[in-house]
Amino acid sequence: MYQKLVIVGRLGRDPEMRYTPTGQAVTSFSVATDRQYSDQSGKPVKETVWFKVTAWGKLAETCNTYLQKGKLVLIEGRLTVDTKTGGPRVWTGQDGQARASYEVTAQTVKFLSQRQEGGEPGQEEELDIAPSEEIPF
């Protein structure tokens, strides 16, 4: 069995890197995706979905170095479910509203934002970062 999730969105905050007790790098960041459409009455609606992304090892270090709030990224990974419910993590926010968190473990990250230095105006920078280990199937 296999699952693959592809997300294209913008970072909602700068990445945060930490290390496990065994010394493995872990970087976490949030990505927002949005879509716009018109409802039945013709009124424009903007829908935003947030994902919490976790990257491990060399990928974590690279994401921590090059990503920052607002950057456009493409994430390929797998959905991480709540072991108790089998779905997204659900909680009640401070405002009393139900909230859900979609959590993704990144396997590949492509940086899609425009270059900051040395690039031509409007030129997209695409860095394809994937773990060096091969998937054994």
Descriptive tags:
five-stranded mixed barrel, mainly beta, OB fold (Dihydrolipoamide Acetyltransferase, E2P)
Q: Which strands sit side by side, in order, in the main sheet?
A: 1-3-4-7-5
Helix content: under 10%
Fraction of residues in β-strands: over 45%
Oligomer: single chain
Overall mean confidence score, pLDDT: 85
Q: Count up the helices.
A: 1
The CATH class name reads Mainly Beta
Q: Provide the low-confidence segments as ranges.
A: 117-127, 132-137
CATH level-two architecture? Beta Barrel
The number of strands is 8
Order of helices and strands: EEEEHEEEE
CATH homologous superfamily identity: Nucleic acid-binding proteins
Q: What is the gist of this entry?
A:
With 137 residues, the protein is mainly beta. It is built from one helix and eight strands, in the order ββββαββββ.
Overview of the molecule:
- There is one protein chain.
- With 137 residues, this protein is mainly beta.
- It has a single domain (5-129), classed as Nucleic acid-binding proteins (OB fold (Dihydrolipoamide Acetyltransferase, E2P), Beta Barrel), CATH 2.40.50.
- The chain contains 1 helix and 8 strands, in the order E-E-E-E-H-E-E-E-E.
- A 5-stranded mixed barrel has the order 1-3-4-7-5.
